[in-house]
Write a structure and sequence with these properties.
Blueprint (H helix, E strand, L loop, with lengths): L3 E4 L6 E2 L1 H13 L8 H4 L7 H9 L3 H15 L8 E2 L3 H10 L3 E9 H10 L8 E5 L8 H12 L8 E5 L2 H9 L3 E5 L6 H7 L3 E3 L2 H11 L2
Parallel strand pairs: 1-4, 1-6, 4-5, 6-7, 7-8
Antiparallel strand pairs: 2-3
Helix pairs in contact: 1-4, 3-4, 5-10, 7-8, 8-9
């Protein structure tokens, strides 16, 4: 049924929260905002940073862009490595690749950082396409990232054969806008309430359950 699978990165393939949250904390402190409640900072994992700084801390657009610059001061040398693969992800990718799927990453994180993370965890070779946003904060909307990924895969006219996998509502909404089905995972950073309200095709509790779903859908 499906020929290609697009994966979100943060909260879907990698448990990247610690590095992202520490980077956000660092950026907020530059504005005199001391945030020690990491449950609030979890909301930054996944969506575009510039939107989250405005939405959750009331920064105007100019200040939010500056906050992203501060964020990168911490993230690039340190935060990017405060990260790990979810257990079972490598085995899942091996099985899916062996099954003949085209695999891609479609992330709102800047593409150079996505590639660096994939190389660090030695999983880049599983993927036919790796797509992220641009460093100048363009192509951050998930729909835009997905469209670029479809273009690179040469599957813009075969959307019914492409499946998105992510852990946040914006993954589900971005996929829907692009005409794709989406599986949402609950082991990442989206809440059950958020995911259920977004109404994805399927919800997977674990990497193992996700692997089982994908194997069945590929038949």
């Amino acid at each position: 049924m499906y020929k290609a699978i697009l994966f979100d990165l943060d909260g879907t393939l990698t448990e990247s929260g610690p590095g992202i949250m520490n980077s956000v904390k660092y950026a907020l402190e530059k504005f005199g905002i001391r945030e020690n409640d990491f449950t609030k900072l979890r909301a930054f994992v996944g969506p575009p940073l510039i939107d989250s700084f405005q939405r959750f801390y009331g920064l105007d657009e100019g200040s939010a862009k500056k906050a992203v610059e501060y964020y990168r001061e911490y993230f690039v040398p340190k935060g990017i490595f405060e990260n790990e693969l979810y257990p079972g992800v490598r085995e899942m990718l091996e099985e899916l690749k062996h099954s003949g799927y085209l695999l891609a990453v479609a992330s709102s994180k800047p593409e150079p950082y996505v590639c660096r993370i994939m190389d660090y965890f030695e999983i880049a070779d599983f993927f036919d396409v790796i797509t992220g946003s641009t460093l100048d904060e363009k192509r951050t909307d998930k729909h835009e990232v997905i469209e670029e990924t479809l273009d690179r895969l040469g599957m813009k006219e075969m959307r019914s054969q492409v499946l998105m996998v992510g852990d946040k509502e914006h993954d589900v909404f971005g996929a829907r806008t692009s005409g794709l089905d989406c599986i949402a995972v609950l082991y990442g950073y989206g809440t059950r309430e958020e995911i259920e309200a977004a109404a994805p095709l399927k919800i997977a509790e674990t990497v193992e359950e996700l692997t089982q779903f994908l194997t069945v859908f590929g038949d």
